[in-house]
Design a protein that fits this description.
Shape: globular
Number of helices: 0
Helix content: under 10%
Largest sheet: 7 strands, mixed
Strand content: over 45%
Number of strands: 11
Structural class: mainly beta
Length: about 110
């Protein structure tokens, strides 16, 4: 069973930065996408960013130019560098891996104060 372990969340002031990491417990084959969703209180889960096996990233319009997704295949890890954070970025962030099914992390809280 694959486990995804996230780290790097926390409390930051508006304009600050955080870097999220998500490490898989073992090598995952046939990955189509790795990425991050987020869910704010009272809102639906939304895709923040994803990256293909070939390294091509996609971003939600709300984070373009501020967030950067990257991956280290050798470490089975995906990262999300978040800059210029705003209060509306406050949410629980979940990493995921999609092969022919989804694998999910447990979520990490990101809180941005104004």
């Amino acid at each position: 069973q694959v486990q995804l372990v996230e780290s790097g969340g926390g409390l930051v002031q508006a304009g600050g930065s955080l870097r999220l990491s998500c490490a898989a417990s073992r090598v995952i084959f046939s990955i189509n996408f790795m990425g991050w969703y987020r869910q704010a209180p009272g809102k639906e889960r939304e895709l923040v960013a994803r990256i293909t096996s070939g390294g091509r990233p996609d971003y939600a319009d709300s984070v373009k130019g501020r967030f950067t997704i990257s991956r280290d295949n050798g470490k089975n890890t995906v990262y999300l560098q978040m800059n210029s954070l705003q209060p509306e970025d406050t949410a629980v962030y979940y990493c995921y891996v999609f092969t022919t099914r989804y694998y999910w992390g447990q979520g990490t809280q990101v809180t941005v104060s104004s």
